[in-house]
Amino acid sequence: MWQIILYGLLGVRKRWIFWLTIPTSALLALGIGFKDAGSYQQYSAGSILSPDRYRDTVGTLIYGERSGLTASQLNKILGDMRGENVPAFVFFLVLFALSVGAAYLASFAYAVTYDKISDVLEIEDAKQYFIKRYEEALGDYPASGFFEDSFQFHLVNYIYDMSIADNWRLLLADAPESFITEVAGPIQTQRDEWHGKVLKLAM
């Protein structure tokens, strides 16, 4: 699972959306969740995630709190004060959940295609062919580094772009036949499936 999420956070081109929304929504939800809701007649309301609640004693049951209210009445007032922060808290909590869910779906869709392409790149002749195509189109292939050595995101994404294009047969006319049958063809077939559509949005 974590490898799939790593693909999405590092491989898909629109990963900046996830980098922005996931931590931001989480921090805002926590900030609002622990935001002090104020006090009522010196009784602290606490926060949504750390509420202050009061209990009746024999004396307060008879005479009420200093405010003249019983603990249940006071707790209701303080609860209403905390409740003013609930809409914003729920909004950012939902945004966080949706962001994580979208990141996972995009990562899963990317992983499906990534695995197909990287299998072909294990064949040295095929890898050199695509590096040559990459350099002809975009310039020097990225210098060796941990992520490029380990995951080859630049090359995989370039190959995906050619495979998903409407004129893919023309672009890949001289590509290894194994690539056409095992990668480009299936990518075209998957364009209309859910993970194909999700990946296209994320790229």
What descriptive keywords fit this protein?
mainly alpha, two-stranded antiparallel sheet, 11 helices, 203 residues, 2 strands
Give structural notes:
By secondary structure, the chain is mostly helical. The protein has one domain. The protein is 69% helix and 2% strand. The chain is built from 11 helices and 2 strands; from the N terminus they run H-H-E-E-H-H-H-H-H-H-H-H-H. It has helices at 2-10, 15-33, 58-63, 71-83, 86-121, 124-138, 146-150, 153-164, 168-171, 177-189, 194-202; strands at 39-40, 43-44. Strands 1-2 form a two-stranded antiparallel ribbon. Strand 1 and strand 2 (43-44) form a beta hairpin. It is rod-shaped, with a radius of gyration of 28 Å. The relative contact order is 0.13. The model has no long low-confidence stretch (mean pLDDT 78).
- According to DSSP, the number of beta strands is 2
Number of domains: 1
Helix content: 55-70%
Shape: rod-shaped
Percent of residues in beta strands? under 5%
End-to-end gap: 20 Å
Number of helices: 11
Order of helices and strands: HHEEHHHHHHHHH
Strand order of the largest sheet: 1-2
Overall mean pLDDT score?
Answer: 78
List unreliable stretches of 5+ residues.
none
Radius of gyration: 28 Å
Q: Describe the largest sheet.
A: 2 strands, antiparallel
Structural class: mainly alpha
